[in-house]
Design goal:
Helix 1 (27-40) packs antiparallel against helix 6 (133-152) and helix 14 runs parallel beside helix 16 (359-371). With 377 residues, this protein is of the alpha+beta class. The chain folds into 2 domains: 27-202, no CATH class; 221-282 and 294-371, no CATH class. The chain has helices at residues 27-40, 56-67, 76-79, 87-90, 112-116, 133-152, 168-175, 221-225, 243-249, 259-262, 271-274, 301-305, 309-315, 325-339, 344-351, 359-371; strands at residues 45-50, 96-103, 121-124, 157-160, 179-180, 186-187, 195-202, 231-233, 236-237, 265-267, 299-300. It is elongated, with a radius of gyration of 23 Å. Its main location: cytoplasm.
Length: 377
C-alpha cells in the first residue's frame, strides 16, 4: 500500500504543536484515505471536526439541562464535567474528532407502525433488534485506527461509541455529518436519523470538514407525536418522561401517570424518528450483525413475558437488551400487558407472576391486572 508521506510537518495548520509519525504525513491525502477506509469498513459516512472547536454554547446548554434535572437517574451525565465538551481533558493531546455513522434498520423487519398499533405485540426500538452496536462500532473503529497506524506509524487515539463522556451529536454536527434535530438526535439529509454514531479521538491534525445547515425548518412533528411529551421544547428533552429512558435507563418503578402512555413500547421508542420527514431517506443496513434476532420485530407480549431468566440470558446474549436485566424486562412487559386489549391470555400471563420474587415486577403486574379489572388470585 502506498504510504501517504510528504515533507516533515511539525505543526497543526492552526499552529498547535503536535507529534506526527517520524516520516511526515500528507495530511489532506490522509484525511481522504481515512474516509475511504471507513467506508470499506462499513461506515456510511465519515467526517472530521477540530477538537478545539467552539463548544461554549453546547457546554452551557449541557449544564443548564443537568441543572433542571432532565437527566433523571443518569448520574454519569453529570459525573464527568467538562470532559464531555473538551476532548483533550478526556484524552490528552486530542486535536481531531473523527465521527462516523452506520445505518441500523434491518432490511426484513416488520413495519414499526403496524407493530405499535397492535396492542398484543411488543414494540422494540429498531436499533436493538440485532447485536449490541457498542461492540460492532468499536470493533470497526479499532480496525480503522489499525489501518491509519499501518500507514503513518504510531499515533495517539481512542475509539468510542456511546461508551464514554463524549457529546456524540455535538461532535457529529461539528464535523458535518448532519445537524441536531428538534428531537435532539442527529439528522442527515441523506440518511435521516436511523444510524449509530461513533468517534475516534486522535492527535493527527488532519484537515477538518465544514458543518451543515439545520434543515428542520418550522416542522414540529417529532414534538407533537411524543407519547409522553418528553420533548419539552425544540432541541430540549426531559429524559424523565422519555420512554427510552423509562424502559432502559430508569431502574425503579415507572411513574403510574406515564404507564398508560407507554403503550406496548417495551424497549425504547422510535416515534419521533418514524414521524420525521427526513427518515424517508433512511436506508436499511447491510450489516448481518444488525439483522433481526429471536423474531423481536414481531412478537407477542405474552410470549416474551413467559421467558425465564435463563431464556432471557441465552436468547439475548450479545443483544443490547440484555443490559437491562430480566427484572426490568419483565417490568416493561407488565406495563405493555396492562395496556394490551383485555383477553384471557393476557390476564393469565400476568397472573403467572403475581408471586414473582421481585417486588418491582409484582407491583407492575398488580397495576396491569387492575387495568383489566382483575386482581392477583
Amino acid at each position: 500500500m502506498m504510504r501517504i508521506m510528504q515533507e516533515k510537518i511539525s505543526k497543526d495548520p492552526s499552529g498547535i504543536p503536535c507529534n506526527l509519525p517520524d516520516a511526515g504525513v500528507d495530511l489532506p491525502r490522509l484525511a481522504d484515505a481515512i474516509k475511504a477506509w471507513g467506508k470499506e469498513l462499513g461506515f456510511q459516512e465519515i467526517c472530521i471536526a477540530d477538537a478545539n472547536a467552539e463548544m461554549a454554547k453546547a457546554e452551557s446548554g449541557l449544564f443548564e439541562w443537568l441543572g433542571k434535572g432532565y437527566h433523571g437517574e443518569m448520574d454519569y451525565m453529570a459525573k464527568h464535567g467538562t470532559r464531555r465538551t473538551r476532548p483533550s481533558e478526556l484524552v490528552p493531546g486530542t486535536l481531531r474528532v473523527i465521527s462516523v455513522r452506520m445505518n441500523y434498520t434491518p432490511p426484513a423487519a416488520k413495519n414499526s407502525w403496524q407493530v405499535m398499533h397492535d396492542g398484543d405485540k411488543a414494540f422494540i426500538s429498531r436499533y436493538a433488534l440485532g447485536r449490541d452496536y457498542h461492540k460492532v462500532l468499536r470493533g470497526r473503529l479499532q480496525k480503522l485506527a489499525d489501518k491509519i497506524a499501518a500507514e503513518v506509524g504510531h499515533f495517539n487515539y481512542r475509539v468510542f461509541s456511546d461508551s464514554a463522556p463524549v457529546m456524540e451529536v455535538e461532535w457529529a454536527q461539528k464535523s458535518g455529518l448532519g445537524w441536531r434535530g428538534k428531537h435532539t438526535l442527529l439528522l442527515s439529509r441523506e440518511a435521516g436519523s436511523m444510524f449509530f454514531l461513533g468517534e475516534l479521538y486522535t492527535d493527527l491534525p488532519v484537515p477538518v470538514d465544514s458543518p451543515t445547515g439545520n434543515y428542520c425548518g418550522s416542522c414540529t412533528k417529532c414534538i407533537d407525536i411524543c407519547p409522553t411529551q418528553a420533548i419539552v421544547a425544540p432541541y430540549r428533552l426531559d429524559a424523565r418522561r422519555c420512554i427510552s429512558y423509562l424502559t432502559i435507563e430508569h431502574k425503579g418503578s415507572i411513574p403510574e401517570a406515564l404507564r398508560p402512555l407507554i403503550g406496548n413500547r417495551v424497549y425504547g421508542c422510535d416515534d419521533c424518528q418514524l414521524i420525521c420527514p427526513w427518515n424517508k431517506f433512511a436506508a436499511v443496513t447491510g450489516e448481518d450483525d444488525f439483522a433481526v434476532r429471536n423474531g423481536l420485530d414481531d412478537v407477542s407480549l405474552v410470549e416474551l413475558f413467559g421467558w425465564t431468566k435463563e431464556e432471557f440470558d441465552i436468547r439475548l446474549a450479545g443483544s443490547p437488551i440484555r443490559r437491562i436485566g430480566h427484572e426490568q424486562w419483565l417490568r416493561n412487559l407488565a406495563v405493555g400487558l396492562g395496556n394490551a386489549p383485555s383477553s384471557a391470555a393476557v390476564t393469565a400471563a400476568l397472573r403467572t407472576r403475581c408471586d414473582d420474587e421481585s417486588s418491582l415486577v409484582r407491583e407492575h403486574v398488580r397495576w396491569a391486572l387492575q387495568r383489566h379489572d382483575m386482581e392477583c388470585i
